[in-house]
Amino acid sequence: MRKGDGMRILFWLLATSSLLLASVDGTVINATTGKPQASVVVSLVQPGAQGMQTLGSVKSDAEGKFKFAKEVPPGPALVQAIYQGATYNLILPPGGPTTGVHVKVYDSTAKAGVAKVSQHMILIEPTSASLDIGETFLVENESTTTFQDPVKGSVQFYLPEAAGGKVKVMINAPGGMPIERPADKTKEKNVYKIAYPVKPGESRFDVSYSLPPTDTFASKILHGEGVTRLVTPSTVTLSGDGIESLGQEPQTKAHIYNAGGAQYAVKITGTGSLRNQEAPAPDEDTGAPQIEEKPARVYTRMEWVLGLAFAILGLGGVLLYRRGAA
């Protein structure tokens, strides 16, 4: 190394590292009123080896502006704003703008009808060891306010006595990551609520629980709007009063049923699981490379096919949903 090369390398490293650091500032906008929002707690969060790390918290000023004085390490970050009990997120991708950003918040309301269940999918998977149930609620909020009802919750569901109160709830909110939240008992027997803010847009609530092995299943539908569909693997069929078969989904051969009425009871025949379903074996193994066939998108198919996609993909941890032509 020639004389002076060490200093040049040091200066280059310092200059490069300074380019990788960024300050974050912006404005909190109340999307309900269209005006800047003062006195909102804003936090800067970044993923790390120990999980999500809070790098700092400030409060927006009278003009809705906020700024984090210290520099932020490189990598993705998240700006979180807490307003009227709801948390709103803005993702800052690597290389993206970090100054002059706008974080949207909304006024909250408990007015009935602001958030409605558009689809309710119930996946029934009987095995020799248990009866596994997965319920997916798609909730639409077409207003410019966030719906919050701490008394009744955003979604209510019926949990059979045999579940022993054990239930798992995962929530996908607009612009957010899947998070787990508890379900709380209500004053009504076996009825639980999920008290979580429903922001403008579509939110998905996934409820899952297991019952002892049985060939019958009974439950209640607690929402008055939207459609409710029962879904079973191809090897499982249902029968019962008010249960109408809508046919089979072409790709997975899963059975889809319409559940009419506020409560239903079904007789279950067969066992199987959609989530563990294997692809059918080819007719003949010639030793040649196999061609993988991809199913066509189902966005323009019948309503029940679209509903099935929500149930299968949602319960599998991945939801592929897009509003398309009917």
Layout: helices, strands, pairs:
Elements: H1 5-20, E1 22-30, E2 35-36, E3 41-48, E4 51-59, E5 65-72, E6 77-83, E7 86-92, E8 101-105, E9 108-109, E10 115-126, E11 131-141, E12 146-147, E13 155-158, E14 168-172, E15 179-180, E16 184-185, E17 191-194, E18 201-211, E19 216-220, E20 227-232, E21 237-239, E22 243-248, E23 255-259, E24 263-269, H2 303-315
Parallel strand pairs: 1-8, 9-12, 10-20
Antiparallel strand pairs: 1-2, 1-5, 3-4, 3-6, 6-7, 10-11, 11-18, 13-17, 14-15, 14-18, 16-17, 19-24, 20-23, 21-24, 22-23
- Uncertain segments are 5-21, 278-326
Q: What is the mean pLDDT?
A: 82
Structural class: mainly beta
Rounded to the nearest angstrom, the distance between the terminal CA atoms is 69 Å
Per the principal axes of the C-alpha atoms, what is the gross shape? elongated
Number of helices: 2
CATH top level label of the largest domain: Mainly Beta
Q: Largest beta sheet: what is the strand line-up? A: 15-14-18-11-10-20-23-22
Integer tally of domains: 2
What Rg is obtained from the alpha carbons, in whole angstroms?
25 Å
β content, as a range?
Answer: 35-45%
